[in-house]
Amino acid sequence: MKNKEIKVRGYHLDQFGHVNNVRYPEMLEEARCDFFDHFPGFFSRVEKTGFYLPITNINLQYKKSSFVDDILEIRTLISNLSETAVTIHQTITVKGTNRVIVEADVVCAAVDLKTGKRASIAGELRAELEAVIAGCEK
Fold first, then answer.
1. Is the CATH code 3.10.129.10 the one for domain 4-136?
2. What's the mean pLDDT in 19-38?
3. The sheet that has 71-81: what strands, in order across it?
4. What is the largest CA-CA distance in the chain?
């Protein structure tokens, strides 16, 4: 699977000349959208199972700074599939280097569309998520 690349622009920067920390969650969201674009119809298939997967937690670890004209490479994968949640792990590096800028874990819970309550990831919903995991391993 292809990683998402984002070029750092002037509007990403703060007064100190490096990427403002509030820009990274936006970049990560863009990369997650791009990631799921590789699985056309994923979200509509999830909805047909009677569930949705809202984000319940985002944990970011800021490691290094990045600067204007850096090309950031964002790697996205599903790192954990538990009984009631899926964890998406993302790493931002400067392209062509091992310099890690941000590590992120995004947790999405399974929620029943009818009741609005947290639910188990089972049956068709689990199959959809396992298909994404298998698709990333190719």
1. yes
2. 95
3. 4-7, 71-81, 85-94, 100-109, 55-62
4. 50
What residues are labeled active site?
Answer: 14
| String of DSSP letters for 57-97 | EEEEEE-S--BTT-EEEEEEEEEEE-SSEEEEEEEEEETTS
* 60 touches 88 (CB < 8 A): no
User: At which residue do the structure tokens 């490096």 appear?
Assistant: 18
Domain ranges of the chain: 4-136
54-83 pLDDT tens trace: 999 999 999 999 999 999 999 999 999 999
Count other Cβ atoms within 10 Å, centred on residue 99: 14
What's the rounded Cα separation, in Å, for the pair 15 and 18?
Answer: 8
